[in-house]
Please model this.
Amino acid sequence: MAITIDHTGKSAIVTGAGAGIGREIARWLARAGAAVGVVDIRRTNAEAVVAEIVADGGTAIPIGANFRNDDEIRAAVAQVVAAFGGLDIAVNNIGMIPPGRTTKAISEYRGDDWRDIVDQNLVLAGLSAGAEVEAMLAQQRSADWQGTILFVTSGETTRPSPHNAIYASAKAALNHLVTSLAVEVGHEGIRVLAIAPGTTDTEQVRAVFSDDRLQAIAEATPLRRAVDHDELGRLAVFLTSDLARCITGQFILADAGAFLSRTRPTFATANRDA
Model:
């Protein structure tokens, strides 16, 4: 018996979808049949991803938006609703160590560092979820309709993260938001989940870590490799599908077993070698 995942007829929004993990999640959702709003602060990147989706036979629209502006968050969600007639799947992938905010000892961080990192990795995701829930609740829904909000957090939340404590703490708070929001909106048919990737081989990671350091991190995992963003795209397709309709309030580790490692190189060493 073949089991397929079919998102045909569903609409989705993926933030931070112009590259890396977000790009692959958007592409995989489109491959499964969803119509996807590809959101990125760099509109040209969003347009390039949409071109790839369309070339593969999928449906998508590019949306350029700066989510540090509350109005642009709601406008992006409204564009998806207007284009596709509703919102069924929301993937909140904005979040990183912002440019210029390198990992460092806690005593070296200043207020602007804290505010910038927490804003990008917690506040923007929370504001996005608020706009997405509002859109989902406002639309016409069948009795068996189910919506899904999926956050991308981090495997750094599962272990001490020296020299990267602010980022890891913000992502850990996002994990708690997942559980709280799942209870808040579950009775409305909305599931809330998170993917917690380990070190993933993306453009941003390669900009920070040397090849030798990435190899050392990979060798410290039980699977002896980094996570591929393509794998996270496939996981997102499953978690947002009817095959996972009884799962909510959970964060799924997708880290090649890195949380089991006791020999993972620290961020401080990684930065020196990068």
